[in-house]
Amino acid sequence: MPSMPHSSSKDTDIIILDFGSQYSTLILRRLRSIGIAAKLLPHDTSLSTLRQAKGIILSGGPDSVYKKGAATLSVKVFDLGIPVLGICYGMQLMAQMLGGLVEKSDKREYGSSRISITHPKGIFHGLPKQFTVWMSHGDYVTKLPKGFIRSATTANSPDAAISHPAKKLFGIQFHPEVEHTQHGNDILKNFVIHICEYAPSQSISNLIDRKVQEIRNKVGNQHVICAVSGGVDSSVVAALIAKAIGDQLTCIFVNSGTLRKNEPKQALNLLKNLGLNITYIHAETQFLRALKGATFGETKRKIIGKEFIRVFEKSANAIKPKPIFLAQGTIHSDVVESARTDTGKKTHAIKSHHNVGGLPKRLNLTLLEPLRDLFKDEVRALGEALGMPESAVWRQPFPGPGLAIRVVGEVTKQKLDILREADAIVREEIENKKWQNKFFQYFAILLSEKTVGVTGDQRNYAYPIVVKAIISSDVMTYQWAPLPHKFLAHVSERITNEVHGVARVLYDITSKPPGTVEWE
Ligand code: XMP
Q1: Backbone angles phi, psi at 186, to 5 degrees
Q2: φ, ψ at 99 (rounded to 5°)
Q3: pTM (predicted TM-score)
Q4: So what's the pLDDT on residue 209?
Q5: I need a labelling partner for 339 at 20 to 30 A (CA). Which of 355, 408, 487, 501 fits?
């Protein structure tokens, strides 16, 4: 069970200033996992609020510190006598404001880098001399401000970490909050516990009680409909709401025509076994008609979001008493990636999740999203604590827009059918090997541009299929899975032999960043 922030005055003890990074909330989540309640506030928070803090963390951000209009803060923050840890953009800003120099790097660093610690004190206390960190930057510090020393280095960033020990100011170019950074939690712990001298507050294990209470307070005696897909997030949200309000909840399962092979049947069985009250709606024709001609991922997401809402509004009208709330399994990464942060500042939009950016402006139902502040691993912990079966909690995530964003380009029934078959082979082979718990997601993608192949003695133009398997726990970042060549060869043979309409099979060897899970 994850520890969660609580609402005592201690919440202001550690403040994270948000400069718009995709990972800002991940810092919050990492601190939460080690029992530290912190607060994420906008980068221009007043000095009077910051004075209350025991420690300040400056997040990363998409800007370059030397660009006009780049997000900034008062230079007086560094003279408050409060320890400051700048991460990526946060470090560059601190260095520049205190008289150092930040410049564009010839070699941008995205992904993993090996770091060597040159000053094994402060935030690096007790850590190995070398370890792997996750970088995502195009600028770097080229001249240190007065009083600062280099405390770590990588091949492309001579000053990968800097510090001013007397003033307790620290900067790191990499992201300790990202799961692929080794010792990331130790670095944050060193900063918060040893440098800020902040004692971790007791972790709150009764997350369920708190969520149940919040749902009851919000819903009262009104009725709720909940969009369920059989996926982890929507199943957890439905189980949680059912626990809170019982038969005031009706779940709606929409078959949009973009689901995987056998999925509607399997999902319905799972949801019924959770004791949920389900209405099934088959809307394949409606969705495929709406998607006709749409080739761009964002457009497809928005169309699907709109059609979902249309279906829900129609179903809500047929339910008595009329539901007032629409519950969704929106989780925190959906919100972050759709560029709406809880500090009210915009991060750069990565995509519109069908359940966030895809919603129409005028919605006749009020949204109920109790998982909005939680990450995937926390949602799974919640599901387990709610007594959901392991198969449901550890089911691999599947995006709301479904296979529509795994067909790159225009979506047709024919392409979906080809993809469904290829995807079923990928999943079956991984599961035959019992590797399903090793990978966060494993699936197939179909590219719309046909390429040539030879079958028998004939040239044959058909679709390429991309196979993908990734290692991650929260999917803010991931690494591609090094599947054995023999296994890949077998999967490729099966797909090209068994699925009509496929000419070749590729394997995706891009990690995130710079890649993303879905090809769209
Ligand atoms: P990306 O492609 O951004 O995906 O690396 C990160 C995770 O989010 C899933 N995903 C979605 N989930 N609605 C969802 O419920 C969506 O619109 C959506 N788009 C991507 C994706 O499968 C991965 O787990």
Answers
A1: -65, -40
A2: 105, 5
A3: 0.66
A4: 79
A5: 408
